[in-house]
Design a protein that fits this description.
The chain is mainly alpha-helical.
């Protein structure tokens, strides 16, 4: 403390000494005033010379002791004194300049000696200033907290630009929008205004200038391009590859451009360390930009051809080196289509994505149309036509106002973003909000609706960009050739990613498939969405007497902007008028409109070749899902050049073709349209919802207790109605999409979350859904059952029932053979027979399996029966498997089937049995709750808690899970639910500690490691065995105000890397996230080896699906992947010795 305190005194004295003689221009660094070593404010990272800490909050101290407060107070005092001195010195300097100016007018001669003295004084002043800056730099390094930037590369860049990243992104998006709509002068003048303002210039980088430079290059204006280079020099920035590419492109477009000019440009480019080949390999091109660039270079170097490398280097991970190097026995699967059929499917998918929306029939359309339904549908159609005209007029008027706003100071507004599409397209997007199924009468959050509106505009904008850039034509050419890899009538054996990259290199002329456009920020989409929502609220109206002619006719809004409290936060939401709700409910409309990405693809997805390119043909898709606005994942992926195994795994999953099981779908739809079934997870219609009671709170006939009771009943009824509406709508969407695809073969493109877990991109209907959704899906490709396929179908059926969990595979097969009568009855009469399938844990999948078994046994030769049915191999509590392997826990490994056993083990039944034994002991001792629970402890009660405890569930969360299971048990006395759940969660946690001795210790070690890492100011990061970088995006909350005409929205941002890591979230999330990343790695390894073996393979995290014929082959691949994963990754990180053989 004494040393640091003395350093402050020395620094202050030295600054006062220097400033007594010289006028200094020193920019001081603000230091947090909380006196703590770590601040939760927007504290920047180490390595940034202009760091600031705005709105610093109190955080936990990183250092303890007496030095905790004194240095900060001295620094505050010093900063305040310096600011006041600077102001005085600035005033004196202004007076001095006036006097000098006056003297210069009196005499035009300058004494060389005086000039020399001033030069000496200036040098002394500069030396003094340099000394002060050096002292302050050293002091700041001693005082400020440790850096918490994400990676060494990010530290190298510094976080100085991080606070302005949002501003920089908005500037780029604004300029790109202006260029897209042809506002050339607006974009150029806006750049000049930003450049001329010193405070704004710091937000500009070379890529921002390149946007305008690229625009002028397209016009062939070499003079304007040169002026942008001058601006770059004034800003202290260096031209990059994009700058030189734009300049050379412009020279290629100018017929009178001298070769000497091109030569000078190429020479300067070489001085800056940029080669010509780099321009072609690392720059994105639109339209004919590449051809113009090549034309300019050929003017100086005739015959030059760019050298493009095929970026298909082998994956460096030792886990997959054999996969990529030893391919002589690989037999990649083919699709059941010819090349011509795949090309036709590509055209159909392209038309769907170009439209950006898909309108399909609702499954409720099968209901008979009544007179009232027809009347309501007619009224709605009439009103929507009027609303479209009204919105079109309102939009055009608002655009005229915005076009004249901020024209002098060139401040950005939403005008360019409202010109990206045709006016009618904006109106259609707005009408889509109030179209479709009946809106939620309780309303939707404004923030959610605004986000959806903004994202739809962005999606259409991206599609139009690709058409204007002429990339769609090139995409079609490459895809046509790519189908040769997948089609059954071609001979081509290579990986999809490698084949696509090869085709891109072969057809490198013309535009690039990746144009390099800036993605819109979350803030921008919200701003645009709230603006459009405000137009709707202000202009959409309806006659009040439309349903009741007896009422007085007045125009009333159909949407209301209101406020409500969610927990303790006041939030804005949009609520439809009851008249609109009633009309849409009674109309039971027969059409639903979805965004195109919601639907499965009609052709195989584009393979992932980079973190920016893959999946859909036109729709923008992120490789790694993240919170809205988070960018740290993309930064990590951009720096990582070794993701081939990850890409290949996602491509394998996406290339699996699917189709609909029509008999199962028809059965589900019949129940859905017939009041549903809670037992079978088919939500009932809203007509079955409880009526919301209405009463007058001012009615004196009610007592206060009666009013409180009725108010509570009304709240519960609204909550129940909202839940039923949500469930019914979700089921309607899934069934309608399935019905629309019933005669199609389709694909699910895949991406992943930040832990590496894979997910299908279509959000509603996919194989990761509920039991209902999974039962409707089967593989498009069929394979014969073979000698053991029928046995695997029967074993799979028993697994779906939840019975015989501790029986061997042969025992389960024997059980299936004893109930064949029930199986066949379920297949033939699912709704009118014995209904055995309804008692299964997964009833709909059980019914689908019953139908497949019935068809197989009734075929002439079951072994030759072509089966499309997916058979599952589910992990035995996968999280516990990883922990047992990490801790060499033999007992735990046995309970989760990590070691060979004669009979499969069931950890959930084991825990339930252990809990029952403990309960029996307590019951004998007279514990009442233990006596009440007699006969109610089973596998189902404890399963969810056991499954999630390894993923970080707390005792509170576990109690809620058990409480829910007990509430679902009709026979259990509900008055004891709360006490029983408290009692059982304690027994479950204690039982798991005894069964898995090392699990809790490893969890504690991981938790403590994450706590120490986040306390030091760093986020927790690691790299999976396949080379996927992972970072936990949990930072302390920062509130950001978004101003709009309809409502100011406060955004709680938790992913801002300039904020300190959230220690609680970092430490609690690390153990489950780490295990999830291992689980994902194992799945990806399995998928790659299954693909090389020619198997059809998909996964639901730790549950692997394949044909009944290839189950045994997949199990061998699974075991191989498991053995290769453990010693190569887990041992070096957690253990000091290698794993024993498992």
């Amino acid at each position: 403390m004494f040393t640091l305190f003395s350093l402050f005194l020395v620094l202050e004295a030295r600054i006062q000494q220097l400033q007594s003689d010289f006028v200094l221009d020193v920019q001081f660094i603000n230091v947090p005033s909380s006196g703590r070593g770590v601040s939760s404010g927007r504290t920047p990272s180490r390595g940034s010379p202009q760091q600031k800490s705005d709105n610093a909050k109190s955080g936990q101290s990183a250092t303890q002791g007496a030095s905790k407060h004194q240095p900060i107070r001295w620094m505050e005092k010093l900063s305040q004194e310096e600011k006041s001195k600077l102001k005085r010195q600035q005033r004196l300097q202004q007076k001095l300049q006036k006097k000098l100016k006056k003297r210069s007018q009196e005499t035009l001669t300058i004494n060389p000696i005086d000039s020399e003295k001033r030069s000496i004084d200036s040098r002394g002043r500069e030396e003094g200033l340099a000394e002060v800056k050096e002292l302050k730099k050293r002091l700041n390094q001693r005082v400020r907290p440790r850096s918490f930037s994400g990676t060494p590369e990010m530290q190298e860049q510094g976080n100085a630009k991080r606070p302005c990243e949002d501003i920089q992104s908005s500037i780029r998006c604004y300029l790109e929008a202006c260029v897209f709509v042809g506002e050339i002068e607006r974009s150029h003048n806006f750049l000049l205004s930003q450049h001329r303002t010193v405070n704004q210039r710091k937000h500009l980088n070379t890529d921002v200038y390149n946007i305008v430079m690229r625009m002028w290059a397209k016009e062939g204006s070499l003079h304007h391009v040169g002026s942008i280079f001058i601006l770059l020099e004034e800003a202290g920035l260096k031209p990059n590859r994009g700058s030189y590419a734009a300049a050379l492109e412009c020279m290629g477009r100018s017929p009178n451009c001298s070769p000497k000019v091109i030569t000078r440009c190429l020479t300067q480019m070489e001085v800056d360390g940029i080669s010509v080949d780099e321009l072609f390999s690392q720059c994105g091109f639109r339209q004919d930009e590449r051809d113009m660039l090549l034309k300019a270079i050929n003017t100086v170097y005739p015959g030059y051809k760019p050298s493009l490398n095929l970026h298909t280097d082998l994956c460096s991970s030792p886990l997959v080196q054999d996969f990529y190097t030893q391919r002589e026995h690989h037999t990649y699967p083919k699709l059941v289509f010819t090349q011509a059929e795949l090309r036709e499917r590509f055209k159909r998918q392209l038309s769907v994505e170009r439209a950006c929306t898909v309108t399909i029939d609702s499954v409720e359309a099968a209901m008979p149309v009544t007179a009232n339904m027809a009347k309501m549908r007619g009224l709605l159609a009439e009103q929507r036509a009027q609303w479209q005209k009204i919105l079109l007029q309102a939009l055009r008027e608002s655009k005229m106002i915005l076009a004249e706003t901020n024209t002098k100071n060139y401040r950005p507004n939403l005008y360019p973003y409202l010109c990206l599409l045709e006016d009618r397209e904006y109106v259609d997007i707005m009408i889509q909000v109030i179209r479709g199924s009946s809106p939620n009468p309780t309303g939707e959050l404004l923030k959610v609706l605004a986000r959806d509106l903004g994202n739809r505009v962005y999606a259409k904008y991206c599609v139009q960009q690709k058409y204007r850039n002429e990339t769609v034509e090139k995409l079609g050419t490459i895809y046509d050739a790519y189908t040769g890899l997948l089609a059954k009538d071609t001979e081509c054996i290579t990986l999809p990613r490698e084949q696509w990259c090869k085709l891109e290199v072969e057809q490198s002329s013309g535009p690039s498939l990746q144009g390099g456009e800036t993605s819109w920020s979350h803030i921008l989409t919200l701003q645009l969405g709230t603006y459009m929502m405000d137009l709707m609220v202000k202009n959409l109206k309806i006659n009040s007497d439309i349903l009741n002619p007896e009422h007085n006719r007045t125009l009333i809004p159909i949407l209301y902007h209101m406020y409500t409290f969610r927990s303790i936060k006041q939030v804005g939401f949009i609520k439809p008028h009851p008249i609109l709700t009633q009309m849409q409910q009674e109309a039971v409309e027969n059409k639903l409109t979805f965004d195109s990405y919601v639907m499965p693809m009609l052709c195989p997805p584009v393979p992932w070749t980079s973190f920016k390119f893959g999946a859909y043909l036109l729709t923008p898709t992120k490789l790694m899902r993240s919170t809205d606005g988070a960018t740290q994942h993309d930064l990590l992926l951009e720096k990582c050049q070794d993701l081939h195994a990850v890409f290949d795994s996602l491509n394998q999953l996406g290339n699996c073709a699917w189709k609909i099981s029509k008999p199962v779908l028809d059965t589900i739809i019949s129940i859905f349209n017939d009041r549903g079934s809670e037992k079978l997870d088919i939500p009932p219609p809203l007509s079955e919802a409880p009526k919301i009671p209405h009463f007058n709170p001012q009615d004196p006939t009610y007592t206060s207790s009666e009013k409180a009771l009725m108010k509570k009943e009304a709240i519960n009824a609204r909550k129940k109605y909202g839940e039923m509406h949500s469930l019914r709508t979700d089921a309607l969407y899934k069934l309608s999409i399935a019905h629309h695809m019933r005669d199609e073969i389709f694909w699910f493109p895949h991406n992943m979350d930040f832990r590496g877990r894979t997910y299908p991109c279509p959000p509603y209907f996919n194989h990761l859904g509920s039991d209902v959704t999974r039962a409707m899906l089967v593989f498009a490709e069929g394979k014969p059952l073979g000698p053991k396929g029928l046995d695997w179908l029967k074993i799979h059926l028993v697994n779906l029932t939840g019975l015989k969990k501790r029986s061997s595979l042969q025992g389960r097969l024997d059980y299936a053979n004893t109930i064949m009568e029930d199986i066949l009855d379920s297949a033939d009469n699912p709704l009118n027979g014995k209904k055995w399938w309804m008692e299964a844990d997964e009833p709909w999948q059980a019914l689908a399996c019953c139908k497949e078994i019935a068809n197989a046994v009734r075929s002439p030769d079951p072994s030759q029966f072509i089966s499309h049915f997916p058979v599952h191999q589910d992990g035995s509590c996968n999280g516990l498997q990883h922990y047992a392997a990490l801790g060499r826990d033999t007992i735990g490994a046995t309970s989760v089937n990590l070691v060979p056993c004669e009979v499969p083990q069931d950890v959930y039944s084991g825990v339930a049995q252990q809990v029952e034994e403990l309960r029996a002991k307590d019951a004998k001792k007279g514990l009442k709750i233990a006596q009440v629970l007699e006969g109610f402890i089973n596998r189902k009660v404890v399963k969810q808690t056991v499954m999630t405890v390894v993923y970080g569930v707390t005792r509170f969360g576990g109690r809620l899970q058990i409480q829910k299971r007990l509430k679902e048990t009709d026979e259990f006395p509900q008055e004891h639910v709360w006490e029983a759940s408290h009692y059982l969660v304690r027994l479950v946690f204690n039982g798991l500690k005894e069964m898995f001795t090392g699990t809790r210790e490893i969890q504690d070690w991981l938790t403590e490691s994450a706590r120490l890492i986040s306390k030091s100011g760093h986020t927790v990061e690691w790299v999976t065995p396949l080379g996927l970088p992972i970072i936990q995006p949990y930072h302390r909350k920062r509130r950001q105000l978004l101003k709009s005409t309809i409502q100011n929205i406060y955004l709680e941002i938790t992913h801002d890397t300039t904020e300190m890591p959230d220690t609680v979230k970092q430490k609690n999330a690390f153990p489950p996230n780490f295990i999830h990343s291992l689980d994902s790695t194992h799945m990806m390894l399995t998928s790659l080896h299954c693909y090389s073996a020619g198997l059809t393979f998909v996964s639901v995290h730790d549950c692997f699906w394949t044909h009944a014929l290839t189950v045994d082959t997949m199990n061998k691949v699974f075991d191989y992947s498991d053995l290769s994963l453990l010693p190569s990754f887990l041992s070096p990180i957690i253990l000091s010795q290698p794993f024993p053989s498992i």
